[in-house]
Design brief:
mainly beta; 4-stranded antiparallel beta sheet; single chain
Length: 120
């Protein structure tokens, strides 16, 4: 930020990037979600995509667990939990909303997940 110079540029998505998260365990792991329906995990050290998954609908938000071994995405009326260590394997799909889920947050101890959507 101090120099305003670009330090990394990687074309990873085919539509607008809607959200992103940086790993708490490594500043080099960046998670992005896009309206192209995909979530990408980028390793800034290697300047490459290390995991890519298809949420199935435009992605509104992503959360990354502190260990960076799992992440959560939301879009459409679903929330999906993914396992990074298994190459982005879908572990669970939650459908608790009737309209688009737009936001996600962890509780302070990462035990609970809060979601918000257009269904109020």
């Amino acid at each position: 930020l101090a120099t305003a110079n670009t330090i990394l540029k990687l074309k990873a998505h085919k539509d607008y990037i809607r959200c992103g998260a940086v790993s708490k365990s490594s500043d080099d792991l960046i998670l992005t979600g896009s309206y192209d329906h995909t979530i990408k995990m980028i390793d800034a050290r290697a300047n490459s995509i290390v995991v890519s998954v298809d949420h199935g609908e435009p992605v509104e938000n992503v959360l990354l667990f502190p260990s960076a071994n799992m992440f959560i995405s939301c879009g459409g009326n679903s929330i999906k939990i993914w396992d990074v260590l298994k190459g982005g394997k879908l572990m669970k799909t939650l459908i608790n909303h009737h309209k688009t889920v737009t936001s996600l947050a962890f509780s302070n101890n990462y035990k609970y997940l809060l979601s918000g959507g257009l269904d109020r």
